[in-house]
């Protein structure tokens, strides 16, 4: 799986958009980009994933660059409850039955009132 | 809907004592099951995963073992706990077939303190 680089921490004002970058310059054509977050003392929670096209769901938007070497997770209106560690995880889909996630250090997003 | 239950939420055990953490999944069949550990101030580490009853794969050598006696039950055990076994233990599941939209669903975790 591709190696990722994320800033260790970011701050965001409540109500503003939070833009979390992830560099995955070694990503292969078969690797999807998944984003999870982990609120303190809880298990990680799936947010969104994508391959080439930008994606949006009820939680966030995912913008993937055309060369797929980086992506940005966007929380359009951050709330205090969005304070968490955000993980960017490229995943190689082999079509098999195993599905392992390797979590890096992620970005600690702190939403301030 | 699917749910995952993990217990206990917190556990304090003396060094050398045994350990048994249990995880069960409801609302799905033939899930992949996982045990992760998160040491204080560190990232999530995959310990074990299972694709079926009695099928356990270990990711790292350690003092722990895992078992899957039933399709939706996953147990993490140790015969003698070490101080280094302290951490936040998370159980997770995903659908069996590797579809592109598969996601991992985590339990609420067990905070284990070995003293």
Q: What is the secondary structure topology, with strand pairs?
A:
The complex is a heterodimer of chains A (113) and B (115).
Chain A: E1 9-13, E2 18-23, E3 31-38, E4 45-50, E5 55-56, E6 61-64, E7 70-75, E8 84-92, E9 107-112
Chain B: E1 3-7, E2 10-13, E3 19-26, E4 32-38, E5 44-52, E6 55-58, E7 65-70, E8 73-78, E9 87-94, E10 105-106, E11 110-114
Parallel strand pairs in B: 2-11
Antiparallel strand pairs in B: 1-3, 3-8, 4-5, 4-9, 5-6, 7-8, 9-10, 9-11
Compact summary:
In chain A, 0% of the residues lie in helices and 46% in strands.
Explained architecture:
The complex is a heterodimer of chains A (113) and B (115). By secondary structure, chain A is mostly beta strands. Chain A has no helices and nine strands. The mean pLDDT of chain A is 89. Chain B starts with a strand and ends with a strand. Chain B has 115 residues and is mostly beta strands. Chain B is globular and about 40 Å long. The A-B interface holds A 32, 34, 36, 38, 41-46, 49, 51, 93-106 and B 32, 34, 36, 43-44, 46, 49, 51, 59, 88, 90, 92, 94, 96-98, 100-109, 111.
> What is the number of beta strands of chain B?
11
Give the biggest beta sheet of chain B: 7 strands, mixed
- Approximate shape of chain A: globular
Major interchain interface with per-chain residue totals: A-B, 26 and 27 residues
Q: Enumerate how many helices of chain A there are, as a single number.
A: 0
Mean pLDDT of chain A: 89
Largest sheet of chain A: 5 strands, mixed
Query: Could you state the order of secondary-structure elements of chain B as H and E?
Result: EEEEEEEEEEE
Structural class of chain B: mainly beta
By DSSP, the count of extended strands of chain A is: 9
Tell me, briefly, the overall form of chain B.
globular
Radius of gyration of chain A: 14 Å
SS summary, helix count of chain B: 0
């Amino acid at each position: 799986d591709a190696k990722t680089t994320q800033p260790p921490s970011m701050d965001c004002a409540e109500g503003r958009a939070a833009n979390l970058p992830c560099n995955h310059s070694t990503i292969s054509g078969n690797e999807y980009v998944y984003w999870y977050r982990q609120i303190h003392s809880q298990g990680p929670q799936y947010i969104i994933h994508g391959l080439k096209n930008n994606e949006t769901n009820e939680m966030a938007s995912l913008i993937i660059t055309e060369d797929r070497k980086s992506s940005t997770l966007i929380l359009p209106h951050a709330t205090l409850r969005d304070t968490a560690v955000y993980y960017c995880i490229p995943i190689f889909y082999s079509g098999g039955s195993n599905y392992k996630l390797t979590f890096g250090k992620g970005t600690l997003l702190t939403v301030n009132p | 809907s699917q749910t995952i239950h993990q217990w206990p939420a917190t556990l304090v055990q003396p060094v050398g004592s045994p350990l048994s953490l249990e995880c069960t999944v409801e609302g799905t069949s033939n899930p992949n099951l996982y045990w992760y550990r998160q040491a204080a101030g560190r990232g999530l580490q995959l310990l074990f995963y299972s694709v079926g009853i009695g099928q356990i794969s270990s990711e790292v050598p350690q003092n722990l073992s895992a078992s899957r006696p039933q399709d939706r039950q996953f147990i993490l055990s140790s015969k003698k706990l070490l101080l280094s076994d302290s951490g936040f233990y998370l159980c997770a599941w995903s659908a069996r077939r590797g579809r592109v939209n598969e996601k991992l669903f985590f339990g609420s975790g067990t905070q284990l303190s070995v003293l």
